[in-house]
Design a protein that fits this description.
It is a single chain. The mean pLDDT is about 95. A hairpin with a 5-residue loop joins β2 and β3. α1 crosses α3, α5 crosses α14 and α10 packs across α12. Helix content is about 35%, strand content about 20%. An eight-stranded mixed β-sheet has the order 5-4-3-2-1-6-8-7, with helices on both faces. Strands 11-10-9-12-13 form a five-stranded mixed β-sheet, sandwiched between helices. It is α/β, with parallel strands linked by helices.
């Protein structure tokens, strides 16, 4: 049976979508990938086609159209309509969703039914910026394509293997029993890296692996035998590293002070921590690391210095959780494309046995560690969409 899988990654201001097909050899190949982004009162589409019959001419299409409705259901409906009317004649048999939060209930992907959907709605308070959009997307597909199976793939699931001491806060136990505990995120990215590391050349040691997912959102994960044992994000994606606009870890006393002494509201605090902090807040210039690296403004340099410092500090913590380090992987936008960040980080963790091949790093080679390094260092592109498609395929075959 030929399976075509639509993968939806629904965010607060954009939707990424991809179509995969199971090839004759059983492997998945991408036919199309695209993104719908809100630009003022318009929707902007960017679509890349990898099949031969999607478009009449160029393999990329880009256009804008007016937004009729300002909600995720309408956006998903527009994507489904686009695919249904494509020249390629897509016949989608499965839809996979990236769902930010699976709570304590979902340690693996799940076929979506009414019970699962109800559980996802109950988790919205744990991920208020994302979960509602995920649920809306699922509801839109169910309404428009009721016969198509849907699969929820969770960003938190990969971290269920963490030891008990890594899944609790030092607060009264009854709060933990209510689900107030570290979960970890970026799990689909980490799971993808774990799935391909055994095939990487030269073959790395897989006993103690640290992965740095450095994008606009950023986190680290420590793995033992490719299973998560620690990560820097915890109850929410706000914790851990300094990010583009998110604060990362901060003394809880600061938040109490802002509420009690600066008359900030909870809503203002949410805006501050999620959208006005990180690189943007520290520099006062930009959330884009590339702009800060190119700037000669002292505030830009100070923001980058702190960003690097937090990564280095957390890598030491992750190494402790893993019992050492054999392999280090950089991934996501900054991790994959910014040689300067990789070099500065590796220089500051030389005490862990890391030695960089500066020429390989500058050329963005896959293996960037020096031949004398005690730690193998790699640059590997992550692919959360493919990971979701693989989960969909496996779950469909099993069912």
């Amino acid at each position: 049976m030929d399976r075509q899988i639509l993968v939806l990654n629904v965010g607060s201001s954009s939707i990424k979508f991809s179509v995969y097909q199971q090839a004759a050899d059983g492997l998945l190949k991408v036919l199309l990938s695209g993104q719908l982004t809100h630009q003022g009162q318009n929707r902007e589409f960017k679509v890349d086609c990898f099949a031969s019959d999607c478009f009449a001419s160029d393999s990329r299409q880009q256009w804008q159209e007016a937004r009729v409705d300002n909600n995720r259901k309408a956006d998903v409906a527009r994507i489904l309509d686009y695919l249904a009317n494509s020249k390629a004649g897509f016949a989608i048999t499965l839809v996979g969703h990236r769902v930010v939060h699976g709570g304590t209930s979902f340690a693996k992907p799940a076929l979506i039914n009414e019970q699962v959907l109800a559980s996802l709605r109950e988790l919205q308070d744990l991920a208020p910026l994302h979960q509602a959009h995920n649920v809306d997307a699922i509801a839109a597909v169910a309404e428009l394509w009721p016969s198509v199976k849907q699969v929820a793939c969770f960003d938190t699931a990969f971290h269920h293997s963490m030891p008990a001491e890594a899944q609790t806060f030092a607060i009264p136990k009854h709060f933990t029993e209510q689900g107030i505990r570290p979960y970890g995120f970026h799990g689909l990215s980490y799971q993808y890296i774990a799935s391909i590391l055994p095939s990487v050349k030269p073959k790395p040691c897989l006993s103690r692996v640290l992965v740095a997912h450095l994008g606009s959102g950023a986190s680290l994960c420590a793995m033992r035998d490719l299973r998560s044992v620690a990560t820097t994000m915890s109850f929410t994606p706000l914790d851990g590293l300094a990010m583009a606009t998110r604060s990362g870890a901060i003394d809880p006393g600061v938040l109490l002070y802002l509420l009690n002494n600066k008359a900030m509201t909870v809503e203002q605090l949410q805006q501050l921590l999620n959208h006005q902090s990180g690189l943007l807040g520290m520099s006062g210039i930009s959330a884009d690391l590339r702009e800060l690296l190119a700037s000669d403004h002292p505030a830009a340099s100070a923001a980058v210095d702190h960003y690097i410092y937090r990564i280095v500090l957390a890598l030491g913590s992750m190494a402790a959780a893993a019992g050492g380090i054999d392999t280090l992987v950089f991934t996501a936008g900054v991790g994959q494309h910014c040689a300067q960040v990789r070099e500065r980080v590796c220089q500051q963790i030389a005490w862990l046995g890391v030695k960089l091949n500066t020429q390989a790093n500058a050329s963005h080679a896959q293996c960037i560690s020096h031949k004398d390094s005690q730690v193998a260092v790699y640059v590997i592109a992550t692919d959360e969409a493919l990971m979701i498609a693989q989960h969909c395929l496996a779950l469909d075959i099993a069912s």
